[in-house]
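Quick one:
INPUT:
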């Protein structure tokens, strides 16, 4: 009788344990796909030899991990604006001397000057995340590119921004599938929301309702009830023309 009872207990536990094991294997497989989806969507289509300005340590850590595993191209220069004294920032300036003007602005504790960014963008493709405290005129230079924005030497039009977001719609759908939903990579989803929230703020700084609406549509799958998105919508419908975004935080 004791042996039969023990056998019954083992049989009762077999199916739950097997189901849990299968679930863990499926989740691990999805997690392996998620970093690839993030790296591809973030910078996979970046122009060759691009300089990428990074203002968040979490984004840098994730991109460095992607590079270590072969998911991020080696021709991209990662420049951490939050750690100017670090070896990576100094190596980036040595690799691209045109970063010196921007480095000077940041080292002096001032906001990036339009000339510094335009000068760099004239020589190398420049990708970044817009900072709310920057001058709104800088937002007019931005074109959405991956999960970042590409800074063009000259101001761009609303049709350019609209076309860029439409062009990358399929890649964004792939990313949504991999990093959201049950069993997905929650941290990557939060990081993606952070980057897209920054882009929505940038589009708000342009004063272009159409660009902002598209940016908010991109953000919604990762942060359905986002507070910053709600503030942007409220300002978009209650004001005319450009509105302030310097109080918002990505």
């Amino acid at each position: 009788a004791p042996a039969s009872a023990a056998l019954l207990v083992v049989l009762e536990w077999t199916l739950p344990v097997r189901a849990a094991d299968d679930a863990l294997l499926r989740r691990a497989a999805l997690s392996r796909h998620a970093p690839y989806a993030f790296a591809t969507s973030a910078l996979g289509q970046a122009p060759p030899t691009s300089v990428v300005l990074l203002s968040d340590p979490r984004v840098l850590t994730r991109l460095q991990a992607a590079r270590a595993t072969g998911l991020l191209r080696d021709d991209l220069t990662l420049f951490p604006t939050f750690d100017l004294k670090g070896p990576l920032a100094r190596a980036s300036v040595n690799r691209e001397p045109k970063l010196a003007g921007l480095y000077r602005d940041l080292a002096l504790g001032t906001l990036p000057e339009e000339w510094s960014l335009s000068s760099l963008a004239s020589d190398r493709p420049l990708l970044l995340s817009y900072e709310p405290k920057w001058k709104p005129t800088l937002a007019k230079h931005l074109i959405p590119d991956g999960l970042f924005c590409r800074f063009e030497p000259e101001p761009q039009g609303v049709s350019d921004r609209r076309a860029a977001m439409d062009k990358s719609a399929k890649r964004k759908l792939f990313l949504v599938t991999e990093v959201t939903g049950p069993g997905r990579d929650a941290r990557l989803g939060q990081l993606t929301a952070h980057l897209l929230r920054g882009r929505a703020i940038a589009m708000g700084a342009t004063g272009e309702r159409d660009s902002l609406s598209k940016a908010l549509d991109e953000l919604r799958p990762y942060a359905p009830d986002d507070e910053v998105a709600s503030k942007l919508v409220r300002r978009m419908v209650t004001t005319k023309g450009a509105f302030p975004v310097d109080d918002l935080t990505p």
